[in-house]
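Sequence, please.
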C-alpha cells in the first residue's frame, strides 16, 4: 500500500464488508490511524483526531454487535487501556479510558468471544504475565462512552483486569475465537523463542499455555480462524525476517510452520478473512515502513 506508512505492528478486522487496518503513525506524533479497503488492494486512511498511542504500543481491532472497537495503550507511562468505537467505520466515539487497566508497552490483543469482547495484554511490570479483561455487549446498538445511561453497558470492560499467573510472555498476545473457546497465543520467554498457545472455555481463566518447541518466532503472533482451522502467523527467527504460518483443525498440535522466503516483515503480522481469502498485513522490512497486505 504505497501511500500508507505505519509506525507499529498493524491490527486488522473485517467490518461491514471492508478490511480495516489500525496502526500508529510512523512519526513522532504517535497519532492513531486506521485504513480501510473494500477489495483488500486500494486503501484510504483516516487519523482519529486528538488521539495518540504509546510509542511502543500496537493496537487491536475487534468487531462485536455491529461495532468496530479500536483498543490501544495510552501515550504515557501508565499505558492505560483506551477504547474508541465506531458503528460505520468512519465516525468514532471515545476514547473511553480504563485507568485501572494498565498494559505492558507492547499493547493489547482482542477478540470477539461469547456475547462480547475479550482483551489480553502483558502486565505493565517486569513479570510480563498475561492479563485478560472482557465485556458483554448487551445493548441493541452502540451509543458510545459519552452515553453511560444507554440501554446497556456500552464500554463495561472489567476493571481491573484478571491476572493469568501461569502465562508469561515475551510479546503481546494474539486472541481469537475458535470452536467456542478463546485462544491466546504468544512468544514465550525462553531462549528458543517458542510459540505458546492456550485455550479457555470461559474467556476469564486461561490455563497454562502449551509450548511448541517446533516453532520459533521473532515477533508477536497473529491468530485467525479460516476454513475451519486456527491459523498462527509470525515473523521467523531468521536473519531474513520471513513470514511463517501454520494451522490446526483442532487448535492443538500445530505443525512446523511454512516459511515464505518471498515475504519479509518489519514486525508482527495481522490476519483476517475477507471474501473467502485469508489476508495478512505487516510493516515493510525496510526504512520506509510501508503497509503491505497479501
Amino acid at each position: 500500500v504505497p501511500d500508507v506508512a505505519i509506525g507499529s505492528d498493524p491490527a486488522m478486522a473485517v467490518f461491514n464488508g471492508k478490511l480495516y487496518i489500525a496502526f500508529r503513525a510512523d512519526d513522532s506524533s504517535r497519532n492513531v490511524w486506521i485504513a480501510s479497503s473494500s477489495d483488500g488492494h486500494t486503501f484510504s486512511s483516516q487519523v482519529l483526531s486528538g488521539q495518540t498511542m504509546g510509542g511502543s504500543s500496537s493496537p487491536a481491532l475487534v468487531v462485536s454487535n455491529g461495532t468496530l472497537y479500536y483498543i490501544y495503550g495510552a501515550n504515557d507511562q501508565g499505558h492505560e487501556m483506551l477504547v474508541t468505537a465506531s458503528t460505520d467505520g468512519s465516525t468514532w466515539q471515545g476514547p473511553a479510558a480504563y485507568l485501572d487497566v494498565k498494559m505492558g508497552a507492547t499493547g493489547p490483543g482482542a477478540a470477539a468471544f461469547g456475547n462480547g469482547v475479550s482483551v489480553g495484554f502483558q502486565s505493565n511490570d517486569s513479570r510480563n504475565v498475561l492479563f485478560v479483561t472482557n465485556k458483554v455487549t448487551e445493548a441493541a446498538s452502540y451509543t458510545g462512552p459519552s452515553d453511560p445511561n444507554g440501554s446497556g453497558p456500552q464500554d463495561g470492560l472489567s476493571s481491573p483486569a484478571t491476572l493469568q499467573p501461569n502465562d508469561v510472555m515475551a510479546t503481546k498476545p494474539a486472541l481469537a475465537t475458535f470452536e467456542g473457546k478463546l485462544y491466546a497465543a504468544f512468544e514465550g520467554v525462553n531462549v528458543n523463542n517458542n510459540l505458546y498457545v492456550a485455550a479457555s472455555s470461559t474467556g476469564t481463566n486461561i490455563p497454562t499455555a502449551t509450548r511448541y518447541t517446533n516453532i520459533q518466532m521473532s515477533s508477536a503472533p497473529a491468530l485467525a480462524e479460516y476454513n475451519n482451522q486456527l491459523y498462527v502467523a509470525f515473523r521467523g527467527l531468521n536473519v531474513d525476517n520471513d513470514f511463517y504460518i501454520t494451522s490446526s483443525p483442532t487448535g492443538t498440535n500445530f505443525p512446523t510452520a511454512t516459511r515464505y522466503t518471498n515475504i519479509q516483515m518489519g514486525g508482527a503480522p495481522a490476519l483476517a478473512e475477507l471474501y473467502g481469502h485469508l489476508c495478512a498485513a505487516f510493516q515493510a522490512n525496510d526504512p520506509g515502513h510501508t503497509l503491505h497486505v497479501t
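The CA atoms of residues 6 and 54 lie 14 Å apart.
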